[in-house]
TrEMBL record:
This is 4-hydroxy-2-oxoheptanedioate aldolase. SUPFAM superfamilies: Phosphoenolpyruvate/pyruvate domain. PANTHER family: 2-KETO-3-DEOXY-L-RHAMNONATE ALDOLASE, PHOSPHOENOLPYRUVATE CARBOXYLASE FAMILY PROTEIN. Keywords: Lyase, Metal-binding. It holds the Pfam family HpcH_HpaI. It comes from Arthrobacter ginkgonis. Belongs to the HpcH/HpaI aldolase family. InterPro entries: Aldolase/citrate-lyase_domain (IPR005000), HpcH-HpaI_aldolase (IPR050251), Pyrv/PenolPyrv_kinase-like_dom (IPR015813), Pyrv_kinase-like_dom_sf (IPR040442). Residues 25-234 form the HpcH/HpaI aldolase/citrate lyase domain.
């Protein structure tokens, strides 16, 4: 679909594809609004980055540069939007994000509306206007499923868990568990939930997602906390964050300095 006045020259760049099933276990969560730090991270080849537009510091105007910083290294970018506003989500998609995470989805009606916001008509109601992403990358083609951004819905409350079947019926591309809020909602210790899943809820979510053909993901933030979910069938998660990388690296360097016995 050609937009009047745009270039007819093809772009030499190819946007990376996002595979939540086969290449999802080495994600990095991004809270800082810094394209330069994303470049340093993505140069090392994570499976994807997740830009946190809900609790992180990135504003809408930051996203184009942040997504591009990942994509130039062939790393797909997912953006967690702050809420359920379709207009906000549309602008995130137009910035080039390969996936959208919508927080706190608790019923099938909301799930269907959010998935629809990521699909062009007749499958949804996403508005067509890729004027900024193009000509840097080839425009998305309405109706081509491979060009759709992945619609990922967060289940992070008891109500969302109880309505999981209705949420899955909306045919999202992924379900993403928010274990902090879910543990609070269930009255379960966070570490116990991720390490041992005492009530079998995380296992149940993963199995129901598998039965529906939907990728199951979860926020873990560390390798140790990822081991249980991987064994239960979760295929995508961030195993670290930019905050964690900076703090642990700094702590390690300072500890090394002390162990070296260097006089201040």
């Amino acid at each position: 679909m050609k937009i009047h006045g745009e270039t007819s020259r093809p772009s030499p760049l190819k946007a990376p594809s996002l595979d939540l099933v086969e290449r999802g276990r080495r994600g990095v969560w991004i809270g800082l609004p810094e394209a330069a730090s994303i470049e340093l991270i993505c140069a090392e080849g994570p499976d994807w980055i997740g830009i946190d537009g809900q609790h992180g510091q990135a504003e809408l105007s930051d996203l184009l540069g942040m997504v591009d910083a990942a994509n130039v290294f062939g790393v797909p970018a997912i953006v967690r939007v702050p809420g359920h506003d379709a207009g906000w989500a549309g602008r995130v998609i137009d910035s080039g994000a390969q996936g959208i995470i919508f927080p706190t989805v608790e019923d099938g009606e909301t799930a269907a509306r959010l998935v629809s916001a990521c699909r062009f008509a007749p499958r949804g109601n996403r508005s067509y206007g890729p004027t900024r992403r193009s000509p840097r990358y080839a425009k998305t083609v309405p109706g081509v499923r491979a060009d759709d951004p992945l619609a990922i819905l967060m289940v992070e409350t008891r109500t969302g868990y109880e309505n999981l079947d209705a949420i899955l019926a909306a045919e999202p591309d992924g379900i993403f568990i928010g274990p902090y809020d879910l543990s609070l909602s269930l009255g379960v210790d966070f570490d116990a939930l991720l390490v041992s899943d005492p009530d079998g809820i995380l296992r149940d979510v993963a199995q129901r997602c598998a039965d529906a053909g939907v990728a199951a993901g979860i926020y873990t933030g560390s390798i140790d906390l990822s081991l249980g979910p991987i064994g239960w069938g979760y295929s995508f998660m961030p195993i670290t964050s930019d905050y964690s990388l900076l703090s642990t690296a700094t702590r390690g360097v300072l500890a090394d300095f002390e162990r070296a016995g260097v006089n201040a």
